[in-house]
Amino acid sequence: MTVPSTGAPLVEVKGLRTHFTTDETTVQAVDGVDLTIRRGRTLCVVGESGCGKSVTARSILQLVEPPGRIVDGSILLHHPAEDGSSQPPVDLAALSPHGRRIRDIRGKDIAMIFQEPMSSLSLVHRVGSQIGEALRVHSDISRKEARRRAVELLGTVGIPDPAKRADAYPFQLSGGMCQRVMIAMALACDPALLIADEPTTALDVTTQAQIMDLLRGLQRETGMAIMFITHDMGVVAEMADDVAVMYLGTVVEKGPVDDVFHAPKHPYTRALLDSIPKIGSARRQRLPSIRGTVPDPARRPSGCVFHNRCAEFMPGRCDVTLPPPVAVAPDREVRCLLHGSTDDQPAAPATATSKEQR
Ligand SMILES: Nc1ncnc2c1ncn2[C@@H]1O[C@H](COP(=O)(O)OP(=O)(O)OP(=O)(O)O)[C@@H](O)[C@H]1O
Ligand SMILES: [Mg+2]
Hints:
By secondary structure, this protein is α/β, with parallel strands linked by helices. The chain folds into two domains: 12-109 and 192-277 and 287-358, 3-Layer(aba) Sandwich (Rossmann fold); 118-190, no CATH class. It is built from eleven helices and twelve strands. It has helices at residues 53-60, 100-105, 117-120, 127-138, 143-156, 162-165, 175-187, 205-222, 233-239, 257-262, 267-274, and strands spanning 9-21, 26-38, 42-46, 68-77, 90-91, 110-113, 193-197, 225-230, 242-247, 250-256, 326-329, 332-334. The strands form two sheets. It has an eight-stranded mixed sheet, with helices on both faces. A four-stranded antiparallel sheet has the order 2-1-4-5, with helices on one face. Helix 8 links the parallel strand 7 and strand 8 (225-230). Helix 4 packs parallel to helix 7 and helix 5 (143-156) crosses helix 7. The protein is globular.
């Protein structure tokens, strides 16, 4: 019997391309993404709006809406059999979006909290029965047992008086409570991976901090992996073990969070880190923002897709050559012509405080 250890790859995304093609145009929303999500660890995927974070997450579960389609790449799920013995990985990218296999995996092996939480909760059903239904999709249990488990799960996610709250409708609960209900639903079948797409963006900072605490605590208890999507480097510092920085459909830099925060290699990563408010900085001081805007993904720039906004743009190189991924350390990769395997640049000074130093 093989029980995979914490840190072993659970999901490996390789060369993923997801495009939206219409008669007029093709939007290359995700265009060559490589990611590894490890057991028991949190991978934060970070980047500005429109860089392909949600489309990457939805691709993993084959939930991309037409005219979107995975056109290339693989998404390998390494999952032991029920008895714990190892079995060959399943390529989720090759499964039919409507087939039995992916429906079995959704919710049971991989659960997702969507960016718009209210769109996933029914307004006309009590929250306890919604969690109960999520349980009954994948296990053969009675309504009574489902109700008992639903109340237990509401308690697990920190909802006070869970037996009473199980009978509430979503509109009777606050935004933070609804987010906890969503997490309870996602946890119903004890998934190996929880994908959380900006789960705290709509919440006030105190509730945001509580939800992040809750997810970290649940991870310690259950050992689940988390893919946490955010546009906020401050949230990455709180949550991540590993980080992948996305820009215009590709991962431009990735690695363990401390390495990336202390020695960011890509100018885009450095610019995102500069946008975190620093303790001790003058109040009301404007944060530096990245110049320009993200280009239309249907009209990708030549060469490095970041070159027209980059503070370290090298004319004749960056606008011509697409930077290949370069391994700069173990588990650490960057796509930037400043970094080659032979002429790697010295690390930039530390620009932010990471999870470990809080
Ligand atoms: N149904 C669709 N049809 C056409 N293009 C789409 C569709 N859904 C997403 N896209 C495009 O794919 C790109 C990536 O979108 P995605 O939603 O993954 O961004 P994101 O990184 O999650 O942004 P945000 O931070 O705003 O949630 C965007 O340019 C978006 O316009
Ligand atoms: Mg999104």
